[in-house]
Amino acid sequence: MELNRGIAVAPGVAIGSALVLGSEDFRIPQRFVRIDAVDSEIARFRAALTAAVAEITGHEALASSRLGQQYGAIFAAHKQLAQDPKLLKEIEDLIRQKCHSPEFASSRVLRQYARTLQNLGDRYFAERATDLFDLEKRILRHLLGERREELMQLTAPVVVLAHNLTPSETANLDTKYVLGFATEVGGKSSHTAILAGALELPAVVGVGSFLSEVSGGETIIIDGNQGLVIIGPDEETLNRYHAEEVKMKSAAVHLRSLGPLESVTRDGVPIHLYGNIEFPNEVEHCTQRGAAGIGLYRTEFLYLESDQEPTEEVQYAAYCEVVRAFAGKPVVIRTLDLGAEKFPQSMQEVIEATPNPTLGLRSLRLTLQNLPLFKTQLRAILRSAVLGDVRVMFPLVSTLLELRQAKMILADVIDDLEEQGATFNGKVQVGMMVEVPSAALMADEFAREVDFFSIGTNDLIQYTLAVDRANPAVANLYSSADPSIFRMIRMVLSAAEKHEVAVSVCGQMSSDPIYTPLLVGMGLRELSVTPQAIPEVKQVVRSLTVPQAQEIAEHAQTLEVARDVENYLRGELKKLCPDLV
Amino acid sequence: MGKPLTTKRAVSMNSIPTCTRNVVVGLESGLHLTPSSQIVQLAQKFSSEFLIRKGDKVADGKSMLDLMQLAAEHGETLQLEARGDDADQVIAAILSLFERNFNLDQPG
Fold first, then answer.
1. Chain B residue whose CA is closest to A135
2. 20 to 30 A from A193, CA-CA: which of A155, A277, B61, B78?
3. Which option is the CATH number for B7-102: 3.40.50.300, 3.40.5.10, 3.30.1340.10, 3.40.50.10490?
4. Alpha helix (H) residue ranges in A215-330
5. What phi and psi values does residue A526 have, to the nearest 5 degrees?
6. Domain limits at A10?
7. Residue-wise pLDDT tens digits, A254-286
8. How many Å apart are CA A359 and CA B30, to the nearest integer?
9. Which sequence positions of A are flagged as catalytic?
């Protein structure tokens, strides 16, 4: 039995046999081919190369349109490398003259060149060897077939173990067969983790290197509550977890029974609980649990599903599905919040080469530089707004100028739609995420220009504490309980109150029941949480009074370090709802 | 900035037009992936043979792999050499690419 510790990101227990998607190394099945097969092997090599070039071309277009020319240029260079006549000749010569298999020949030639680069002594050029390894991987993938197809062809229940799962891979997991997953990298607030919660799959990320210890088919326990991955559990452990599985199922049933109950404090103050969703089919998770609407509809998935940009009609259909389901209740649609981490796997390595991607071109900054993309989305949102109470929210606003620019573009879109005689609603509420410290500091000014604020704690914490939440080396410094975060929230709340602007908190902090008394005590009356957290948060709300919450918030704000705050809040929650701790 | 240092014009014995020019690598991080790709893309438009020499190393200017192996760093002198009917044009085009620093300068 081997026990590995990671970061728990989606609760629950999964017990099943391992499907390992780890190593990026391809096994080359054979070194030689028969002499009479040489021509067909060369044809196979060329077909794989054509496919690889087409793939790179797709990435080039995607990177240029989403990130700018300079990123597209990197893929353009990769494409040229893949079409280098010298390279092709060397590989084909090996196949023709030495009867090497295309796999072996490609790998050998590219690795030889990569080694030469590595030996040049210059750091920069040595790093370029990765470009050649990348090309090798790409060609092999096309020769040997897409490894990850394994995920599409499941016929029996498995636990997925991988070095990394991209958000789109996670989103496409077949929940009929995938019981849970664990990855070597990733953090609590990574997009993959958020999706795991949405899919209600027990998951552990950031385990560190462990895949080499696992063989496919081995029994694995994923404990999404404690953040444990147990390889080859002994009988006692297995029995204990089977019992836990049963217990959790009954607890879930109990929490779900809270669904129809109102979210009001014991002294009768309503606390509106909204759902955070990404996929239209999550609407059901929200309605079942009695959500008052959607406080955060993330739209990235539409853009991640394929390498192409979703058309206005595709977006319109997705938005309508959600708006209809919540007829009359608020649905806050956030415009594209694409960051570097949300690009397809095959583009990641290149994008990550940018220093400080989280401080770079992402989110609203990206859409403001890609107006056609931005306008298409705004058109779809406004058209869907005739069906209900749709609100538009801009992410990652850091200056007033950006907000004004975004609003101006929204006004342009309204003009266009009017001119074209389209059916749409131009009188939607417009709000912004407060997730950059500058926006919190300037909340007073921002409040004059928006209808609502939504405090996005994940990024606000990351930027305030200067901690990359996905980096295991510093992840322990990332805490919702840091007093600096409370001060940020306080500034936003007082600005919102002064200008009578609605304010809510989305982000993982609001989904964690230990923070519910604090947030209510600070004055929040709207929380937007992951659908799975609605019952727990509601249970806390229903066991609180506002004065009680205020007292907890006041005391919490006198504490100086995150650990003390967290311990204190946990203790208070234990008093209120012992079964939740 | 890439500065042309010397100019040599010669007509070889079998009278294939040849053009040779020297240029200094002005790019901070050397002739890396993106500029190499620009060279190749441009050179491929011409019919002439196009070589880039650095010391005793020779690279086919129409091959990314070759240019990468050349590992030309900031401040190093390269010899551009073209042979063919449009030799002058290739060299002029490539020189201009160096002079514009491959359009990789910060705007403003």
1. B65
2. A155
3. 3.30.1340.10
4. 235-256, 283-288, 300-304, 312-325
5. -135, 130
6. 2-23+163-252
7. 777 777 789 999 999 999 999 999 888 788 889
8. 26
9. 191, 506
